[in-house]
Structures are given as C-alpha cells and as structure tokens.
Amino acid sequence: MVIRLNTGEAQREAMTVLVYVDYVPATRQPRQESLAIIDIARDIASKLGKEIEGVVINSVVVATKLRDMKMLPKVYNIRLKNIPEGTYIPTLFGEALVEFCKKKNIDVLLFPATQRCREIAPYVAARLDTGLVADVSDLYVDEKGEIIAVKPSFGENILAHIYIPDRKPKMFTVRASLKKKISSTYEACELVHEEVSIQDHSSIEYVKSAQVYDPDIEMLPERHDIVIGVGAGLSRDSIELVKAIAKKMGIGVGATKKITDRGILSSKFLIGESGKIIRPRVYIALGISGAPQHMTGIKDYELLIAVNIDERAPIVNYSTHFYKSDANELVRKIAELVLR
Predict the structure, then answer these.
(1) Can you give the pTM of this predicted structure?
(2) Domains in the chain with CATH codes
(3) Residue pair 233/287 in contact by the 8 Å Cβ criterion
(4) Exposure of 129 by Cβ count < 10 A (0-12 exposed, 13-18 middle, 19+ buried)?
(5) Which helix (H) or strand (E) holds 138?
(6) Which end of the chain has fewer beta carbons closer than 10 Å to its terminal beta carbon, N or C?
(7) ω into residue 292 within 30 of 0, thus cis?
C-alpha cells in the first residue's frame, strides 16, 4: 500500500540530507541509534545527489566525538545561549532545530527513533509546516526520486509505503538496528559551531536531570549477540525463568508483541516492526510462531534455534535448527541446570 502524505505547497529547492544526532546525557556519547541511521542517510543522499551533514544540539563534547569518528563530512554543534552544556529542554531543542533548518535549507531530516526524538520531531514538523513519518523500519528512493518510508499499519497486518510530496524538509524518525556495523568513510570531518538565542522561553525553568537505573538493562536484546526470544507458547512462569536464566548466563531477552501487550514483559523487550531491530549472532525462539511482524526485527543472524510444538509454524522457515517440543518443559529443564 502506498500512502501520499499531502502537506501543502512546495517550498524552495534544498540541497542537504541532515542527520539529527541524539546522545546519552550522562556520558556525552552519541547514541548508537543515531550512528546506525547514518548509513541510511548516506544512501538517500547519494541517490538524490544531495550533501549529507549531522547536527548536535548543545553539546560540544558530543560534536567533537562525532567529528573524530569521521562518519560524516560535516557536523554542526548548535550551542544554546545561557543553557548549560548537555542540558535537555525539548522545546528549546526543537526551536533551535527549526531555526537551523530554515537557515540551512534542509531537504531531508532524519531522526533516530529514540524517546527524545519522538518528542522533538513532531514539534519541529509542526513549526516547519511539513510532513513527518514516524517509527519507520526502512527508507528507500523509488524510480521517480521519491523517498519512500516503510512502516507497519492496521495492527501490523500490512506494511505501508509512505511518501511526502511537495514539502521540505521531509522528516522521518527511523528505527535502526543497534548492531549495524559502523564505519568511518571520510578522510576528515568539519566541525562548525553556531550559537542561537531562543526567545520567549522565560516560563521554562531547568530544575535538574538524573540518570535512572533500569534493573533490566543488562538483559535488553540489543546489547547481546545471543538472545532468547519468548512468545505466546510460553507461560508467565516460564518467562520469569527465562529472565533468570538470561541474567545468570549474561545473554539477552526479547519478546513478541503478544507478550508485551499482555504486560508480561515491558515494551523495551519487544522485537519486530513496532519494537526493536536486532542483529544477534544466535537467536533462540521459544514458543514463537514466527509472524513476519516479529521476524522482520531479527537481522543477519548466524543461528536461529526454534522450539515449538507446531512443526507447521512459520518459524520453521526462518530456523537453522528446529525442535518440535514444548518450550515450557525445555525451559524448566534448563533452569534446573543453570539456576541450581
């Protein structure tokens, strides 16, 4: 299905594909999601004959690190006047990006689909009166030179192909794999510093920021080369055992949408079209049927070991090794060996 997102009259011709680089406040490191979409941006820019640049807001530390990585030919650091380094205030970040886009005549603006960018991107799109396609799983350029965004729709039963005609910048938030290989491809990267003073924000007061500890962070699927995936064929008790096994063995846990929709695991474990895209070396699918909406989130694996009582389940077609068995019984036996 192709959807035409009509957003108004055409603006002036632009010449740049811009990547917004989100970063981790506590460490001042570019988020891996940001780095992962740079290859996508390069491909789009190459096919459109455009320049590619990156932008960081309010962190010279992050911008300098990005320059040293040489993944982009040019990086802008937008300094917010009178705002401490690294301090995040959504409306100020949004306004700074709006002013930058107006000044630089941006053609395409790509965001990683992080929590911050899901706050900023809609604000920027509204202020620039342009189109935004959110949480896309893929981008490509068609034969007419249109950028097409691919994302699930209608309860994930179909994949919609969406484009934004007659408006610039065309904006997208992109869910990219954290395991995607990151490489330096430029001899040098130019770092440009700019300062903006945002008006009419006297009602905004910065209080403090703090890092919140997530007890599940060491089990998140994007952090590991070996991941156990849990599906509707596992009971709640079995899934708790899987978490304990994963924690003990230092491997990741992923889930299908049925598991997260039921509240058994939170959405941070969700893999698939509406969740995370991972690139594990080994994926162990327990009680997972193998619906395309889940399997599209698992890329470039070497081994996929599936355990399911239904030998006709679609997961068989994705598996390198398939075992017809009750996954709950297998989990209990592994728990007896690992957790004793």
Answers:
(1) 0.71
(2) 2-196 (3.40.50.620), 217-338 (3.40.50.1220)
(3) yes
(4) exposed
(5) strand 138-141
(6) C
(7) no
Whole-angstrom distance, CA of residue 283 vs CA of residue 33: 21
In contact, 73 and 16? CB cutoff 8 Å: no
CA distance 97 to 21: 12
Task: Output the six-digit token pair for 84.
Answer: 């401490």
Q: Which residue in the block uniquely carries the two structure tokens 């100020």?
A: 92
Q: For 51-91, what is each residue's pLDDT tens digit?
A: 999 999 999 999 999 999 999 999 999 998 888 888 888 88
Residue 12 has pLDDT above 70, yes or no: no
CB 81 within 8 A of CB 197: yes
* Tokens coding 163: 């484009």
Residue given tokens 């895209």 in the structure block: 277
Residues composing the chain: 340
